[in-house]
Amino acid sequence: MTAHEGEEHGSNLGQRLNWLRAGVLGANDGIVSVAALVVGVAGATTSSAALLTAGLAGLVGGAVSMALGEYVSVSSQRDSERALISKEREELRTMPDDELDELTSLYRDRGLSEDTARQVAEELTAHDALSAHLEVELGIDQDDLVNPWHAALSSAIAFTLGALLPLIAILLPPPEWRVPVTFLAVLIALASTGAVSARIGGSPMLWASVRLVVGGGLALAATWLIGTLLGTTGLV
């Protein structure tokens, strides 16, 4: 057994953590946006049909919007990575000596002596020049590029799962308990997602949870107040 047994390594560890963090944030968006929507409607009417319609519309619209946003964003990132890979491949083909000097310089800047940096650069160039340059210069693994379809699907699923909580919480209780139950369920869920997000990022969990709870609470209070005002004034 070694001192680092169980510790994760690998070029895709950062990407997996990013997907996990994106999933937590997607779920949080689903919780807050749909909760604010249905609480606002509940402030104006007690109709279960209206609440269900508004909640489902917010869930579907939000999930599609999140998926499209992630797909476009990650597609742009992947296109940029592919362009950089092509550029680096062409430079290695047309000016290999300059690229070897550049790789040597990069390793020297990382603290290696001139001789050691040159030896490392030469050995890595002989093994896989493109991968060596992509990793050191650009931080890119050509075998592990981001996938826009994975990003879109995971974002849509995370949003949907988060959105289901306030939708269920607003529909199940009797009318007089709908808003308090939804408030409580949402604030607990936000505290949990804040703690998970902080744990992933290695930051204090308490403040991350407090920020989400306060922000989510203000959003719910604002939409409920607007819905109540519209309902009592007879505008809806």
Radius of gyration computed on alpha carbons? 25 Å
DSSP helix fraction: over 70%
- Count of the separate structural domains: 1
Main beta-sheet strand count, sense and barrel state: none
In sequence order, what are the helices and strands, one letter per element? HHHHHHH
Shape: elongated
Characterize the structure shown:
With 236 residues, this protein is mainly alpha-helical. It has one domain (13-232). The protein has helices spanning 13-44, 48-94, 96-109, 114-138, 148-171, 175-201, 205-232. Helix 1 (13-44) runs parallel beside helix 5 (148-171). The longest helix has 47 residues, at 48-94. The radius of gyration is 25 Å and the shape is elongated.
Provide a compact summary of the structure.
With 236 residues, this protein is an all-alpha fold. Helices cover 83% and strands 0% of the residues.
